[in-house]
Amino acid sequence: MTEPVTAEGAPKPRLTSIDMLRGLVIILMALDHVRDFFHATAYSMDPLDPTKTHFWLYLTRWITHFCAPTFVLLAGVSAFLQGTNGKGKKALSWFLLTRGLWLILLELTLINFGWNFTFAGFGLIVIWAIGAAMVVLAALVWLPTRVVLGIGVAIIVGHVLLAPIDANAVGALGPLWVLLMEPGFIPPMTFVGYPVIPWIGVMAFGYGIAPVFQLEPARRARILTILGLSMIGAFLVLRGFNLYGDPAPWKDQPGVLRDGFALFNVAKYPPSLAYVLITLGPAFLLLPHLEKAKGWFAQVLLDFGRAPMAFYVLHIFLGHALMLIIGVAMGFPLQVFLGFMANPQPLIESGWGFSLGVVYAVWLLVLVLLWPICRWWGRLKQRRRDWWLSYL
């Protein structure tokens, strides 16, 4: 499914399956973040703990695992396609460098404020990781595509070997190690949730496989299907037999369901090889089907997928604002809703939170409220070619 661009001198048709997949994963991302704002045990229990969770809570959290790796992968794919669709190496490298730095700045300012409604602390999470990976990709694009692919695969497969290295063991380089490989705090008040090296691997992998998206549809679908099935198969073998690929081997649990919980509870912080295999494998399988998708749901996915940054920023502010308004209206102190990402203890002690049913209802409300804005913004970006629009 492609849409022709009729403007004179316009680039080649854009694969809408990429935008649809991006739209799908940001919709799922919003579910996870609404859960952060509204669920009763969001900060008091790990929803993927096989000994404590239940099916719907586990599923609600686990399906959102697809979001970050798919989004980072597609950023790499899109970078390559831009380079073959009008941008030369120099222009592409400059764009990736400047957009990456812009995303890091956004993370440290607007996005952090949206999460906390204060500047009590700073979190380096997914937008930081995308930005930092783009800065590195700005240098990698000067290499042959196959070399970039090899670098991406080597990082994805091999970075697990670095997991035993502890930031405390490298002395003064500890903060740098936290930024690169190990989630943790950098004094005085910065939390790094997304160490960047593994995400560089995912973005480089996306850039390296992007030539597949230039093939004719039948061949492209065949390669993506084989790749997706191979990654899922590799996950089942490596993870199923605890051979390699995740820092925490899974253990037998009482009952088949909890065995499944343990098997699929793979490390996201940072993303292990097992995590990447079981998230990107299904994403590759889905892409050929999205190329054939039509109707209202496909259009909704396109509308969200063409305005990812606007959606990301707005859904954080909207979700947090709804949390604060509802909470204060119910009699909760305003203070517990400020800075809770940096210090959730007051929020936990206040008794704030609802069932999953309420979480899903608020999630749908957020999507309904933001859909027309994203639709308008995406169409504006299609109509206009102002340089600054590519940064938003």
Q: Please, could you describe this protein's structure?
A:
The protein has 392 residues and is mainly α. The protein has one domain (17-391). Helix content is 62%, strand content 3%. The chain has 15 helices and 5 strands. The strands form 2 sheets. A 3-stranded mixed beta sheet has the order 3-5-4. It has a two-stranded antiparallel ribbon with strand order 1-2. Helix 5 crosses helix 8. The longest helix has 28 residues, at 89-116. The protein is globular and about 55 Å long.
Proportion of residues in helical segments: 55-70%
SS strand fraction: under 5%
Major sheet attributes: 3 strands, mixed
Give the total of domains.
Answer: 1
Calculate the terminal CA-CA distance, rounded to whole Å: 25 Å
Q: Taking all residues together, what is the mean pLDDT?
A: 93
Order of neighbouring strands in the sheet with most strands: 3-5-4
Structural class: mainly alpha
Number of strands: 5
- Overall, the morphology is globular
Low-pLDDT parts are 1-10
Rg is 21 Å
Structure described in brief:
The protein has 392 residues and is mostly helical.
Topology of this protein?
Layout: E1 2-3, E2 14-15, H1 16-38, H2 55-62, H3 67-83, H4 89-116, E3 122-124, H5 126-140, H6 145-158, H7 174-180, E4 184-186, E5 190-192, H8 196-209, H9 217-240, H10 256-264, H11 273-290, H12 296-305, H13 308-329, H14 345-350, H15 356-383
Parallel strand pairs: 3-5
Antiparallel strand pairs: 1-2, 4-5
Helix pairs in contact: 1-3, 1-11, 1-12, 1-13, 1-15, 3-5, 3-8, 3-11, 4-5, 4-13, 5-8, 6-8, 9-11, 12-15, 13-15
